């Protein structure tokens, strides 16, 4: 009984911590104009600037802007807190966008603007594309049709403003980011598991 109570408490703590809004600050672009696309830079909970990709063509934002955001690990396929979750099949554009972001790991920076425009188009078909940008859209759709073989979407995070449906075009953007370290909720789970093993030994 005591063991069950401890495990429940650990799981509850992990859920609460992972659901806590994140403090974000938009640092700026890697080039003078936003149209250059990925990477933008933002800080998460006061940490070092993180390379992020904007997926929302309508919202502009400005360097220095600060807001609270909800974090979604794309691998969870839980779209309850993302900005475009009212689409008929929200998993489709987010998975395509996540796949495109992952391609920045294996493509030269010269192609990143085209990849970001492809992401913008996936969520907003009013975005006008060049042939090179359309090529990336086509590749993402092809991968989607094949079920994204071998893709680990747990490597992609989505940072969505708490006011996820904010109509103000100057309001904060939604960002995608590559994840190189466990998010806070994951770290709590790992620590909780380790603590659970220690507790188990003591209870014996």
What do you see in this structure?
The protein is of the alpha+beta class. The chain has one domain (2-203). It has helices at 2-18, 91-103, 112-123, 131-145, 184-203; strands at residues 22-29, 40-44, 50-54, 66-73, 156-161, 175-178. Strand 2 (40-44) and strand 3 form a beta hairpin. Helix 1 (2-18) packs antiparallel against helix 5 and helix 3 (112-123) crosses helix 4 (131-145). It is globular. The two termini are 13 Å apart.
Counting DSSP H or I runs of 4 or more residues, the number of helices is: 5
- Low-confidence segments, given as residue ranges, are 1-17, 181-204
Mean pLDDT across every amino acid position: 83
Q: Can you give the helix content as a percent range?
A: 25-40%
Largest sheet: 6 strands, antiparallel, barrel
- Strand fraction: 15-25%
Trace the largest sheet across and list its strands: 1-2-3-6-5-4
Number of strands: 6
| Domain module count | 1
Element string (H = helix, E = strand): HEEEEHHHEEH
Rough shape? globular
* Termini Cα gap: 13 Å
| Helix and strand composition category | alpha+beta
Short description:
The protein has five helices and six strands. With 204 residues, the protein is an alpha+beta fold.
Please specify the SSE layout and strand pairing:
Blueprint: H1 2-18, E1 22-29, E2 40-44, E3 50-54, E4 66-73, H2 91-103, H3 112-123, H4 131-145, E5 156-161, E6 175-178, H5 184-203
Antiparallel strand pairs: 1-2, 1-4, 2-3, 3-6, 4-5, 5-6
């Amino acid at each position: 009984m005591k063991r069950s109570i401890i495990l429940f408490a650990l799981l509850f703590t992990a859920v609460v911590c992972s659901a806590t809004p994140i403090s974000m600050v938009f640092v700026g672009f890697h080039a003078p104009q936003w149209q250059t696309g990925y990477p933008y830079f933002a800080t998460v909970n006061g940490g070092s600037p993180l390379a992020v990709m904007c997926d929302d063509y309508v919202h502009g934002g400005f360097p220095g802007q600060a807001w609270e955001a909800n974090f979604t690990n794309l691998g969870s396929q839980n779209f309850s807190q993302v900005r475009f979750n009212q689409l008929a099949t929200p998993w489709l554009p987010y998975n395509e966008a996540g796949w495109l972001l992952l391609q920045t790991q294996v493509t030269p920076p010269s192609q990143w603007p085209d990849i970001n425009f492809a992401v913008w188009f996936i969520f907003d078909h009013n975005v006008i594309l060049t042939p090179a940008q359309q090529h990336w859209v086509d590749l993402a759709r092809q991968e989607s049709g094949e079920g994204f073989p071998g893709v680990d979407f747990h490597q992609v995070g989505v940072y969505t403003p708490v006011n996820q449906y904010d109509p103000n075009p100057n309001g904060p953007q939604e960002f995608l980011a590559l994840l190189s370290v466990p998010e806070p909720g994951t770290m709590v789970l790992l620590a909780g598991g380790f603590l659970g093993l220690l507790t188990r030994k003591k209870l014996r």
